Amino acid sequence: MMELDGPEQTPASGAAAKQLVILLHGLGADGNDLIALAPHLAQALPDAHFIAPDAPFPCDMAPYGRQWFSLQDRDPAVMLSGIRIAAPILDGFIDKQMARFGLDAGAVALVGFSQGTMMSLHVAPRRPDPFAAVVGFSGALLAGEALLDEARSKPPVLLIHGDADEVVPVQATPAAAGALQDAGFTVETLICPGVPHSIDPAGLKRAIDFLGKHLT
């Protein structure tokens, strides 16, 4: 099985990790892109360890960066097959990190951006024990109807999206929220006016508050 690795930030408190936050980047980026969120999130989670793994595959649409799956073909079935290939690789990484810090699922959160959100929303519900929280920025849920049969755990979910997103249409967030709610998940959403495919201060603050509530 392919091994993932990426940049990390140790707990701001200097103590042993009591929580683990795994940050999943988007297409064409790498772990360095999202580990920059860690100092902000640590305001609410001083005892959390943060790690941002590089996605397993080189980006096939740019001469640099990584990808969880290809987006050359946007057919939902093709994208879903790519997610299903990457999912066990991510699951193995999560299991390894939980064992490394001696933490159970209730002390773990996934935070994704764009393609990282798609991975988070696929992997988290299919694990046997619920994570403390899942936060998804500027992403989408593929095959949401499959959760009715495939969801094994139902962590609380926060979805944040800018209404000026030129990459992933903002309509993807209410669609994802509806499918998750239909499958029995508790979901919160925040639509950020005028925000493109990025994370703005209002969205970041909402994520900090949400993680602080569910992880401590």
Automatic annotation (TrEMBL):
<comment type="similarity">
    <text>Belongs to the AB hydrolase superfamily. AB hydrolase 2 family.</text>
</comment>
<dbReference type="GO" id="GO:0016787">
    <property type="term" value="F:hydrolase activity"/>
</dbReference>
<dbReference type="InterPro" id="IPR050565">
    <property type="entry name" value="LYPA1-2/EST-like"/>
</dbReference>
<feature type="domain" description="Phospholipase/carboxylesterase/thioesterase">
    <location>
        <begin position="13"/>
        <end position="214"/>
    </location>
</feature>
<dbReference type="Pfam" id="PF02230">
    <property type="entry name" value="Abhydrolase_2"/>
</dbReference>
<protein>
    <submittedName>
        <fullName>Alpha/beta fold hydrolase</fullName>
    </submittedName>
</protein>
<dbReference type="InterPro" id="IPR003140">
    <property type="entry name" value="PLipase/COase/thioEstase"/>
</dbReference>
<dbReference type="InterPro" id="IPR029058">
    <property type="entry name" value="AB_hydrolase_fold"/>
</dbReference>
<keyword id="KW-0378">Hydrolase</keyword>
